[in-house]
Amino acid sequence: xRSGTRPPRAAGRVRVSLTxxxxxxxxxxxxxxTLLEILRERLALTGAKPGCDRxxxxxxxxxxxxxxxxxxxxxxAIWSGARVTTIEGLGRGGRLHPMQRAFIExxxxxxxxxxxxxxxxxxxxxxxxxxxxxSQIAEAMSGNxxxxxxxxxxxxxxxxxARRRKRK
Length: 168
Hints:
Blueprint: E1 14-20, E2 23-29, H1 35-42, E3 61-64, E4 67-70, E5 83-85, H2 98-105, H3 115-128, H4 134-141, H5 151-167
Parallel strand pairs: 1-5
Antiparallel strand pairs: 1-2, 3-4, 3-5
Helix pairs in contact: 2-5, 3-4, 3-5
């Protein structure tokens, strides 16, 4: 094979190129592969959870180009070229993101299953609405279910980060 040419792709496979948590990744996958499958099985990023596998619970939420999406029902091939942020890539330099810290401070983490999706949805909310009102918070978080019922604490965590941003 000549230098600079790619090996032939297996029949029925597609090339998906993503920037995941700042790192460029290219993978050959079956066209039916979900983004969640790539993240968990191929890239060993297990923060996004397979919950309902129907896009109803939000446990699989990741940010794609800054928007929260359900990775369990999203085909990876349609996002080729996109920027994907998972909970593993949210903090910087070994430090927690302010939203992660606020969830801990507000005791909004119970069993932890929904937490990555909740945190990412909250980050996307504050990126769109730096000072959200109660209805904006409710709407933005409505796609993320919490089995433990920590919704009031989750709202407090979001409000805490919004208040801290106001002071800066």
